[in-house]
Specification:
Its EC number is 2.7.7.7. This is DNA polymerase IV. It is found in: Cytoplasm. There is one protein chain. The chain contains 13 helices and 13 strands. A hairpin with a 2-residue loop joins strand 5 and strand 6. Helix 11 packs across helix 12 (318-332). The chain has helices at residues 13-24, 54-57, 67-73, 84-98, 127-142, 154-161, 177-181, 194-202, 208-212, 216-234, 265-285, 318-332, 370-386; strands at 5-10, 36-39, 49-52, 78-80, 105-109, 112-116, 146-151, 169-171, 252-262, 288-299, 304-315, 338-350, 404-409. The protein is globular. The strands form three sheets. The protein has a five-stranded mixed β-sheet. The chain has a five-stranded antiparallel β-sheet with strand order 11-10-12-9-13. Strands 3-2-4 form a three-stranded mixed β-sheet.
Length: 410
Amino acid sequence: MTPIIFHIDVNSAYLSWTAVEQLKNGSAVDLREIPAIIGGDQKSRHGVVLAKSPAAKQYGIRTGEPVANAFRKCPNLVMYPPDHKMYREKSRLLMEYLRTFTKEIEQVSVDECYMDFTSIADRYHSPVDGALEIKDGIKERFGFTVNIGISTNKLLAKMASDFRKPDRIHTLFPEEIREKMWPLPIGELYMAGRSSVETLKKLEINTIGDLAQADPELIALHLKSHGKMLWEFANGRGRDVVQAEPEEAKGIGNSTTLRADAETEEEVYAVFGELAQSVGRRLKKAGKKAGMVSMEIKYHDFRTISHQMQLEKPSNDPDLLKDTAYSLFLEVWSGEPVRLLGIRTSKLADESEPEQLSIFDIEMPPEPDEKHKRLKKAMDELNARFGEGAVMKASLMKKGGSGRKRDGEA
């Protein structure tokens, strides 16, 4: 059976959710109908536009630009600060509603998810009819709108949902790629960041179709593994497996927003080392091992991507978590500055659960000697007593201080 995948994306989520909440509390103005933005404190690093109304977009206001710039473009702009607690609740209610259709939901951010529609497709005359019921149900029940993209894999569904907005349904099946996707500017390809686009344009690759028909070896020569991935995307090749996770399998993870954007692999590796120590320690405290590791990147312009993989054997070893996350990072990193990194583990199993060994286990590196075991145990105990990061390896410390602030643990 051919997979049918939906990508469901809330239109201007932060602004829409704020508008809905204000209208519910008696406001006479709908923020979605006037020049309005959601933004942070102009004095802080987060003094940027997080979401904008269609009217604000007409002034050339872009998500991710400084709030001060937005006000220069539109002096009568209305701005409200973000309310992340409220956003999480709106997101929870949305996902709860979507799971009344099918449990095959993969949430990838607070305002978007993939749905594997395949098993329920026979209930509807067409996938578009099913998407219409979901879209209109969200609008009627919650008061905000979504775009739904439909295809046979996640990449094309994501691309489709980014077509004309808001409150729309779009298909992008493989046979529609040449007509609907290839004419688009190269910058509209998923994961084609600013620096990648500049490189591709120097190669006279201006549209997604140009990239799809280019020599993949040439692209890889200039953009390495990221270029190969972009070439695959331009040809419509993506995963069709929706990684649904049971609601009770919450997992353990941690993320951190960097005070200064990370621009090198060495900086990223050090951050993952610190995050992995925290996640590994919490797994051990809970008596758990993780069977799945996922890595999250948020770029300087707030684009977010996550990537995950199944471990050969469940583990709570920080070194393995670090190396896995770093490997996942290298597979998808565009080379652009990174402002947030995260590690999350799922598919948790009890630490006491017996492991099935294979013949290859005899090739594993030898266990640390008693001296290193005692040292590691002492470090764990000190960190548990005085707080995470009280004691760490010198190799994980950044000159001049950590240079990071902790977002909190998930």
